[in-house]
Specification:
The protein has 384 residues and is mainly α. It has 11 helices and no strands. Among the domains are: 133 residues; 52 residues, no CATH class. α8 crosses α10. Keywords: Membrane, Transmembrane, Transmembrane helix. GO terms for molecular function: magnesium ion transmembrane transporter activity. One of its GO terms (cellular component) is membrane.
Length: 384
């Protein structure tokens, strides 16, 4: 019995290691692919020969890497527990930020660099330390999710209670978002996170049944596979729809951090579906929660320091006498002058650039009162 138990634990440890490595590899690959595609768009924007992005080899290479990375993430759910794979999305944020530094090409003094990006490197440390704690103290047991096991989990009371609370919460949030026009970031991202919880639960089920089928145990002829597959596709589509709406209304860096925190928290909470923490002791659970908190804080610090674009709002003066607009005159203005420094001729904030000086003689010639005797100015005109 002892040998059998050790073999089972060894198999679970091997599966966890394979799933963890696949998840890390997939997230790194997705970050690299997105950077390559972004580089392709930027290069096309500055080129004289305007071609469609899908006609470039660079964009297609990034697309292929994205597919490979997402495939690795999908397969990782079949080997490692959901509660370990879901928080590893922080690796994607970490990799994207590092690649941003590589392609930034910004020359700063060491003192200025440390002052501006010190919190970013602190966030790197938190993400790396949190990832280590997640992987080390995550659930050790790994269950082979056959169709029969998934049905047993589906009808268990913890899952039914979780699904009931999730449906009620989702309906309430959707009511406030659609009917009351509550376009708050928290409401939209909570909707995304609730759908994301369903997505990762169904992804793990579909991925596990596909891997078992490839290994020789047919699972695709069970009705639960079709149910899980439809739920996976539908939740992923609606999740992407809500996330795109959030990107239109709010800052992208704030969305990245808040969405990661909400989605990961509800995904780990959704691990109750598979009872992954049932056999874990308090120490392992506490260290796992500490690792999750470190990842949350690290992602927040990494995304918090991104520069926000300032909007330039030009103004005109109220002195519009005789139909001649006097720009930047000494008269009253519609809005006060902007505190930042701008170079005239552009609509982009140029921090650190001295504002260009205007020519001295910009004043319009004074218009005196009209003479009642028009014949002095125009001798050819008759008097009434």
């Amino acid at each position: 019995l002892t040998d059998m138990g050790n073999t089972a634990e060894g198999g679970s440890y091997t599966d966890n290691l394979i799933g963890t490595l696949l998840a890390i590899f997939g997230n790194v690959l997705v970050s690299i692919s997105l950077t390559i595609q972004k580089h392709s768009h930027v290069k096309l924007a500055g080129a004289k020969d305007q071609r469609a992005f899908y006609r470039t080899k660079t964009w297609w290479s990034g697309f292929v890497l994205t597919c490979l990375g997402e495939l690795a993430n999908f397969v990782s759910y079949a080997f490692a527990p959901l509660s370990i794979v879901a928080p590893l999305n922080a690796v994607s944020v970490l990799t994207s930020s590092i690649l941003g530094f590589i392609f930034l090409r910004e020359k700063l003094k060491p003192k200025d660099f440390a002052k501006q990006y010190g919190l970013v490197f602190l966030g790197y440390t938190f993400v790396i330390g949190g990832t280590y704690l997640l992987v080390s103290f995550g659930p050790n047991s790994h269950e082979k999710l056959t169709a029969v096991n998934i049905v047993k989990h589906l009808v268990a009371w913890p899952v039914l209670l979780y699904m009931l609370l999730e449906i009620i919460t989702f309906c309430l949030l959707l009511y406030f978002y659609k009917r009351r026009r509550a376009n708050y970031l928290i409401i939209i991202l909570l909707l995304v996170a609730l759908l994301g919880s369903v997505t990762v639960i169904t992804v793990k089920a579909v991925s596990s049944m596909l891997v078992l089928t490839i290994e020789g145990t047919m699972q695709l002829n069970y009705p639960i596979f079709s149910v899980m597959f439809v739920c996976m596709v539908a939740s992923a589509i609606f999740q992407a729809s809500f996330l795109s709406q959030a990107c239109k209304l709010h800052d992208s860096s704030l969305i990245a951090s808040v969405n990661y925190i909400f989605s990961t928290f509800l995904a780990v909470l959704g691990a109750v579906f598979y009872l992954e923490f049932e056999k874990e002791n308090i120490l392992h659970i506490s260290m796992f929660l500490l690792g999750s908190a470190l990842c949350f804080l690290g992602v927040f610090l990494i995304t918090k320091t991104k520069k926000k674009a300032k909007i330039f709002e030009p103004y005109v003066s109220m002195n519009m006498s005789n139909g001649v607009p006097a720009i930047h005159d000494k008269g009253l203005v519609v809005q006060p002058d902007y505190s930042g420094s701008f170079s005239y001729g552009t609509l982009v904030n140029n921090n650190g650039v001295a504002p260009a000086t205007l020519p001295v003689n910009l004043e319009t010639p004074p218009l005196g009162p009209r003479s009642t005797d028009a014949s002095h100015d125009h001798p050819g005109m008759k008097k009434d």
